[in-house]
Amino acid sequence: GYTTQLVPTIIRVSTIIKIVRSSLKMKIVKVDKKKLLQKSIGISGIAALFCTLWTILDKPHSQASLKVTDEKNDLGETVVLVSYFCGSTSRIWFYVSFTCQALLLLSA
Known about the structure:
single chain; alpha+beta
C-alpha cells in the first residue's frame, strides 16, 4: 500500500538528483513529465501485481499478539493487551518483499 506513495517520491528525488548533477556540468536538462508518470504507474502496477499474487497464493490469517503490561484492573488482575493482525504462514514473502523494496531504493 505505501508503495503507491513511496514510488513517486523516489522517482522525483531521483530526477532532482539528475538535474543537480547535470547542472554541475552546466548542461540543459529536460524533464519529461509523461515518462515520470509512466515510471510511477509501471512500478506501482508491479507492486499491485505482487500483492495480488501474495494474497492469492498465501491467504492472510488472523494472528494475535499478546503483551503483558504492568497495569492492574479494578480486580487486581494484570492487564494483557491483545492486538490482531493479518500474517503469513510462509517466511518467503518477507524475503521477496524485502528484496523488492531494496531494489526499489537502489534503483533510485
